[in-house]
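Hi support team,

I submitted a single chain yesterday and got back a structure, but I'm not sure I'm reading the token output correctly. Could someone confirm the output below corresponds to the sequence I sent? I've pasted both exactly as they appear in my results page.

Thanks,
R.
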Amino acid sequence: MQEASKTVTAGINPNTELSCFTKEEHEVIKKFASEWYVTSTGKPIKLGSTSTYKYFLIKPTSLYQELFNIEREIVVVFSDYTTLEPRTLDAFDCVINKYQELRIEKVCSVLVSKDANVEVKIRDLLKSDPEYQIVVPFHFGELLESQDSYFIRNRFKEHFYSRDLFAFQSPLKKDLYFFGRTDLVHKIVSRHRSSENSGLFGLRKTGKTSIIFGVRRVIDAHDGVSVFIDCQSPSFHIKRWFSALRYVVEQIKDQNKVNVSLSDESKYSEENAASAFERDLLKISGRLKQKNFLIIFDEIEQITPGISASEHWKIGSDFVFFWQTLRSLFQKHDQLFTYLVAGTNPKCVEIDRVNGVDNPIFSQIPYEYIPSFDVPQTREMVRKLGRIMGLKFDEIIYSKLTEEFGGHPFLIRNVCSVINKISPGDRPVRVDKSIYELGVKTFNEEYSSYIEMILTVLKEYYNDEYEMLKFLAVGNSETFNEFARLSREYTNHLLGYNLLDRNQNSFTFKIESVKRFLVESNKYRKINLSEQEMLAEISERRNSIEPKLRDIVRKGLRQQYGENEAKKKVLDIFGDPRKSKYGAYSYKDIFNTRTAEIYFEDLRKILEKEWDVFQNVFGRDRETFSVAMKAVNKYRADAHAKSITKEEMEYFRVCATKLENFISEQD
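Hi R., thanks for writing in. Yes, this is the structure output for that exact sequence:
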């Protein structure tokens, strides 16, 4: 920290060895030394038998530290080849690996190439690997010929500020942009080294797969062995339990490049699969020098009873036989392997019996839910990525982000991506409360599908808990608490998934954006409304239903009879004086409330009379539809009645919901 606080001035370290560089390369170094401090050089890097790359290290001056949030040295690589090849990027990794990790800035490197199209090619290469560090490209000629004193600075701005580092949608396979989960990764690895199994569960997009990749990186870095089994792949879950065992040993062999012959597939029969599996595991272990390897089962719900996509896992006994085999071998050979089960649904370790048989892994695997980010973790991620992109967040924004999005990293990154889009292009820019609030508003309006996607786990697997969330969101805490008192299971998942927080016996939402989404999508379930609120809801819903019904009627009659005959049928329903008044109107204008008087009751009469035309839309029960139409019309806000009872309001809601469901199916 003391070194980072020192003022760095441009220049060249007098001890820097420059004799290996050509005159042209020397001029490039001097060019950088006018704005950066050149700290050192090293022996050229060799890639393969033919490619050689020279390099030097530069330290940012205070200007560059402020602009790009970089304080450590970065690598500048020379490529003397007129055609840039993808392997050139490997030179950066080789240089970084030569130095202490704390000395080199991994987030950025510089390439000086003789390929005239280097800038275009670098952009294309990085598109295929969005997790790769920022590479600022220069062509020898432009560097040496440019007289613009801002040329280097502007090129850095162009390549730093043009990438949206918040917009990662896929799991992170590298540690460059991996934040806030290091302790959890090491905890899982530590359990594996102690020959203990683990379970990891969380809502969608909480970073589960990124954590798994982090676990594998740590194990690989210590010369360990791991294997990743994607239970979501049909290649795995469509297999019967005995074939699935062979799939596991095949993956251990292939992913770790183990040269060993496995038992023939015929040995993996129902009777002999467990024995064959044991023999093959011991063979592989021998070749791996008896290393204890970690078997990772991701998306474990795909082989979980009751919810798997494959029938033999869902309702059969394959789950029992598969885990009986693994558990038996784990107990027999306690230094052979451990397993990590991960997914969105922990049912596999929660149910005690499957088809009348004890669940082999019930209470046998300690599991945990992925924790939310706290404010310091949010700050670390948002501050680092933001400053690289030219966004300087006010300190208060980190706590606001954590509270609004409950420390959910995917939601936080994506709202920051929105903030990046709406922020001025002239960077760096300060992200204050006003920009933050606009970003949150835009996100909630345009990206509510992200919230819905996160909640699909509850909708698919825990519908009772999902309904409870709705009750709590709309203020019906009494019904929520009734369920909570019935069984702790009703709230365990909601607390585990970090959707709710509990203080004593009081429950509150941890993710305000989830509450807002549920309130908006269930706003007509709110209870204890005032009379004014009831009338406002009636007016809002009726005014939403009516134009959609008009459109359905207009299109349906025209399609069935043609415009002239359809117009005649509508006017007959109107009767005089409207029939005579609108006789000269076009068919379209008759349905336009700005040019003609067409009422909700008219629509009901038309639909009832022409029910054969519309029954495919509204169902065969004309009476139910008619009752709903009359009720919605009766309780309209402009009716003569000055008050409405709670019972009448509930009846209106039932009827309005029926009509809305009919209409929504036509959208």
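A quick pointer for reading it: The chain has a mean pLDDT of 90. Let us know if anything else looks off.

Best,
Support desk
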